[in-house]
């Protein structure tokens, strides 16, 4: 019997047009990811659930939105009821291993070096483990971009990407005759862009990823985006460093893909990134409280030999929230009720092509310190053509992504678009209700442009939305009767 195997490869801070296969104007020096795209299906409208490392990963690996699992900012941990895909699979006797950046334990950037429940402890290797292998001097060097240019620079073997690749290839070789789910999570091309010198050379003295929205009039943007832009001073960040490291991590992924071809040729391969980087678009750098495609529209590729047609493209919205249901479907495990995403397998096999929407959120960038705009509650939806953004504390945005792909013309007040605007607004409100968004309330409905908004009421929709309990949990009891809850969403 053919083994069931999945390898999920992810990078950090890799926006879609940083792959040549997505960028028709520029050579991004990503031959290996370009090759992967040619062997399967490339998604054009795949979205992160929140454009910040930790919250993005929380959705990707639990199948629940950050506002549901409690990880609404970096340096926060899941709530006690949240389960990862590793736990689901290990309980079904599927060998699961996670190699690379985790960023989900509620600690600092590097993690605590401790393997969580559900994953193979022999292969666990977060960034804390990587640093613990070094002396203090090398730890410091590993966090400085300048290290790449000291003397002859650094060797490949010094990098986190190389060490993750080596561990992943060891796992694939030793488990070639077993069912498994393997995550290989690179920190690269995230700052400090640590790579051998040669990978920066193609990008020396050249302009890359230039867009008209880098020089647009910022006065039409929400106030918090204008404040953010002022802090950036009109700069575009270190494009050379980011793209050089981007080329380097592609090289490491090439080694990994070679190992998969040799020892797991029929495995399903899923590739994505947690979020992108603004690089000066809309006047801002990095990622944070905005929904622009530069940071939310992530690369996403699925390949599965003899199953997914080669060199195909999916143009409908997809989301990281769909990854856990997809993995469960692949291993024939029933999807729990509380997961709101959908398996992508029918879509990639050409058995389903219904209209879809992707939802994106933002609450806070970081919980441990100030900066990054502080508390900025935002909820957004993308359909096959439009994007609506509700920025609760500043101004809202509506973009026609077909006519205005760089999101330079805000249509929120344009009478011609009132119908689609209100329809998308209703979709956001329904999504917030269905996913038990703890930040929901009448203020999301009563936007200045929503003429038919209902009157503000203290009870809002008058509903109670209890958390779904798993079969292994104590059943929640109703406050009024003391009896077990049978309807999880009902009038109070």
Keywords:
492 residues; alpha/beta; Alkaline Phosphatase, subunit A; Arylsulfatase, C-terminal domain; seven-stranded mixed beta sheet; four-stranded antiparallel beta sheet; 14 helices; 15 strands; globular
What would you note in describing this structure?
There is one protein chain. The protein is an alpha/beta fold and 492 residues long. The chain folds into three domains: 5-353, 3-Layer(aba) Sandwich (Alkaline Phosphatase, subunit A), CATH 3.40.720.10; 361-464, Arylsulfatase, C-terminal domain (2-Layer Sandwich), CATH 3.30.1120.10; 465-492, no CATH class. 26% of the residues lie in helices and 14% in strands. It contains 14 helices and 15 strands. The chain has helices at 31-38, 53-62, 66-69, 85-91, 127-132, 136-141, 160-174, 223-232, 239-263, 293-296, 323-330, 345-348, 418-434, 442-445, and strands at residues 5-11, 41-43, 46-47, 95-100, 180-185, 268-273, 300-304, 312-314, 318-319, 358-364, 375-382, 386-391, 397-400, 463-465, 489-491. It has a seven-stranded mixed beta sheet, sandwiched between helices. A four-stranded antiparallel beta sheet has the order 10-11-12-13, with helices on one face. Strand 12 and strand 13 form a beta hairpin. Helix 1 (31-38) packs across helix 9 (239-263) and helix 7 (160-174) runs parallel beside helix 9. The longest helix is centred in the middle third of the chain and has 25 residues, at 239-263. It is globular and about 65 Å long. The mean pLDDT is 95.
């Amino acid at each position: 019997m053919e083994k069931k195997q999945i390898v999920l490869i992810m990078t950090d801070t890799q926006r879609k047009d940083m792959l040549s296969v997505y960028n028709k104007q520029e050579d991004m020096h990503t031959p290996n990811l370009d090759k992967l795209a040619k062997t399967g299906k490339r998604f054009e409208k795949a979205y992160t659930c929140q454009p910040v490392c930790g919250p993005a990963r929380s959705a990707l690996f639990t199948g629940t939105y950050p506002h549901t699992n409690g990880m609404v900012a970096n340096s926060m941990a899941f709530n006690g009821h949240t389960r990862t895909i590793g736990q689901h699979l290990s309980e079904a006797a599927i060998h699961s291993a996670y190699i690379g950046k985790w960023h989900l334990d509620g600690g600092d950037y590097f993690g605590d070096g401790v393997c969580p429940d559900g994953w193979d402890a022999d292969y666990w290797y977060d960034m804390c483990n990587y640093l613990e292998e070094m002396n203090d001097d090398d730890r410091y060097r590993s966090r400085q971009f300048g290290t790449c240019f000291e003397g002859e620079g650094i060797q490949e073997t010094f990098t986190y990407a190389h060490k993750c690749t080596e561990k992943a290839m060891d796992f694939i070789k030793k488990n070639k005759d077993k069912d498994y789910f393997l995550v290989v999570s690179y920190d690269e091309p995230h700052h400090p862009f640590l790579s051998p010198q040669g990978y920066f050379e193609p990008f020396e003295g050249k302009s890359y990823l230039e867009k008209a929205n880098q020089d647009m009039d910022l006065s039409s943007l929400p106030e918090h985006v204008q404040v953010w832009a002022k802090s950036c001073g009109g700069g575009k960040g270190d494009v050379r460093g980011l793209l050089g490291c981007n080329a380097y991590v592609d090289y490491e992924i090439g080694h990994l893909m070679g190992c998969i071809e040799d020892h797991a040729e029929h495995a399903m391969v899923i590739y994505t990134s947690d979020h992108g980087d603004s690089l000066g678009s809309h006047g801002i750098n990095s990622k944070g409280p905005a929904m622009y495609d530069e940071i939310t529209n992530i690369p996403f590729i699925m390949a599965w030999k003899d199953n997914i047609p080669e060199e195909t493209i999916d143009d409908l919205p997809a989301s990281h929230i769909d990854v856990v249901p997809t993995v469960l479907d692949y291993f024939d495990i029933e999807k729990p009720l509380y997961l709101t995403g959908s398996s992508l397998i029918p879509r990639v096999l050409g058995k389903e092509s219904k209209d879809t929407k992707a939802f994106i959120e933002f609450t806070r960038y970081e919980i441990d310190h100030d900066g990054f705009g502080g508390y900025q509650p935002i909820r957004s939806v993308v359909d096959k053509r439009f994007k609506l953004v509700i920025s609760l504390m500043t101004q809202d945005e509506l973009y026609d992504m077909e006519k205005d792909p760089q999101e330079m013309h805000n249509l929120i007040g344009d009478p011609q678009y009132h119908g689609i605007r209100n329809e998308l607004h209703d979709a956001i409100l329904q999504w917030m209700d269905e996913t038990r968004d703890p930040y929901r309330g009448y203020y999301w409905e009563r936007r200045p442009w929503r003429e038919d908004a209902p009157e503000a009421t203290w009870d809002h929709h008058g509903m109670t939305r209890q958390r779904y309990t798993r079969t292994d949990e104590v059943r929640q009891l109703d406050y009024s009767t003391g009896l077990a809850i049978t309807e999880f969403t009902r009038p109070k």
